[in-house]
Each structure stands twice: as C-alpha cells, then as structure tokens.
Design goal:
Layout lengths: L1 H11 L3 H20 L8 H15 L4 H13 L1 H7 L1 H5 L2 H4 L3 H25 L4 H7 L6 H11 L3 H25 L7 H23 L1 H30 L2
Helix pairs in contact: 2-3, 2-4, 8-9, 8-12, 8-13, 10-11, 10-13, 11-12, 12-13
C-alpha cells in the first residue's frame, strides 16, 4: 500500500494526470448513460462531477491542484461555445420569421429565472450576497461568475449553482416538455427552452435530441447570457440593494 501511495503522490504532481482522469471519468459516465438507454438521472455531467469530487476527497487533493492539470478542458469551453454558431448558421433561414417569438420567449425565460431565484431566496431568508450569487444561475459559468462578482455576490458559489441548474435542466426539461405536449416536431421550442434555462449543459442535452434543437439551444444560451448581464445589475439596484 505504501508503494501505491508513493506512486500516486508522484503522478499527482504531473499536471496531465488530472486532465486524463477527467476525460476517463466522463467517458465512463457517458458509457453508463448510453448503456442505461440515456436515463435522464444518469446524466454524464452529473455522474462525472460526483465521481471527480469523490476522487479529490479520497486523494486529499486541493481543487487548485486539480484545476492546474484540468484547465485545458476549461479553456475549450470558449471554442466550444463559438462552435455552436455552425449548426445555428444552418437554421439562419428560419431566424428572420421567428424573431419575435424567440425574443418574447427569451425575455420571459430570463426574467423568470432571475426573479424566481431571487424570490425563493428571499423567502428562505438568505443573505444579500447569497441572493446576488443566485440571480445569474441560469447563464453559462464564465458570464455568471463575472456578473456575480460585479454585483457583490460570491463567484465560487455562483459557479456551483450554475452547474446544479444545468444538470437539473438537462435531467428534467425534456420529460417536462413532453408532459406539456411538445413532441419531436417541436425541436426549435425545446432546444431554445433548454438553452435559456440550462445554459451549456442543457445545450449538450438538446444536441442529443437533434441538431436543430442544439442549434436553437446555443442561440438561447448566448442571448440569455447577454440579457441576464444587463438585467441582473438593474434588478440588484432596484431590489437587493434595498
């Protein structure tokens, strides 16, 4: 056992180890997801996060050490987000005639996400800095953390809430939309709803449904990030600051 521990200590000092661990854990989680007929509760992001946290705790590894090795995955978030424009370009012919419905859906979704989080937090008696951390939970992590920091929230708490929101949306959104009567032909509406409510994780789930749903999820994610960045400071000044 002591020899195995010494080997682990040596490997843990190598930056690429945590990148390799992250990729392998996600690969295993995705395989499990596919073998279980894409059961929503076995979302690969959720399983991978839980597994990685368990590994970090078991090996007594600081998050900073882990991130130093796995930060290349974080770097790829930017190019991956930009790449979402490619399938959206294929739907460009539909955007002009769908501009008004999408704009109304965007406003409704953004306002609901911010106000509902604020209202629930206020009813639970949360402190103002926690409330500020909650408000941008439905936008992609880098934007949400920037908004949180700007208004006096806790960026680290916001990051956790963003991930939880995305996982919840990826697990529950499709079954809920099906329950509400949205079928396979409603890929545009389902994808846009996932992008607005569950950012990147929801967008990944939308691509599993269809490329059309994924394209509109990417559009919803980007537009929601922009609108929320404008909306949250205004709501904070009007409500939380008092």
């Amino acid at each position: 056992m002591s020899e195995l521990f010494e080997i682990w200590v040596y490997l843990a000092e190598r930056p690429l180890v945590w990148l390799t661990v992250t990729v392998l854990v996600y690969w295993a989680a995705h395989r499990l997801y596919l073998q279980c007929n894409e059961l929503a509760l076995l979302n690969p992001v959720l399983i991978a996060v839980v597994a990685l946290v368990g590994i970090l705790v078991a090996t007594d590894t600081e998050y900073g050490t882990y991130f130093e090795g796995a930060q290349f995955v974080h770097f790829l978030l930017g190019p991956a987000t930009v790449a979402l424009a490619v399938p959206l370009y294929g739907q460009a012919h539909r955007l002009r005639r769908m501009g008004l419905p999408l704009a109304l859906a965007l406003i409704a979704g953004s306002v609901t996400a911010v106000v509902s989080a604020l209202g629930i937090g206020w009813l639970l008696g949360l402190e103002s800095d926690v409330l500020r951390s909650l408000m941008p939970k439905s936008v992609t992590t880098p934007v949400a953390m920037g908004i949180s920091e700007q208004i006096g929230g806790l960026p680290s708490l916001t990051a956790v809430l963003v991930i939880l929101t995305g996982i919840t949306g990826a697990v529950l959104a499709m079954p809920l939309l099906h329950l509400l009567g949205y079928g396979p032909e409603d890929a545009t509406a389902k994808g846009f709803a996932l992008g607005v409510s569950a950012h990147g994780i929801g967008t990944a789930r939308a691509f599993q449904h269809s490329e059309e749903a994924g394209a509109f999820a990417g559009l919803g994610m980007g537009l929601n990030a922009l609108l929320t960045a404008l909306l949250v400071p205004l709501i904070d000044a009007l409500v939380v600051a008092f």
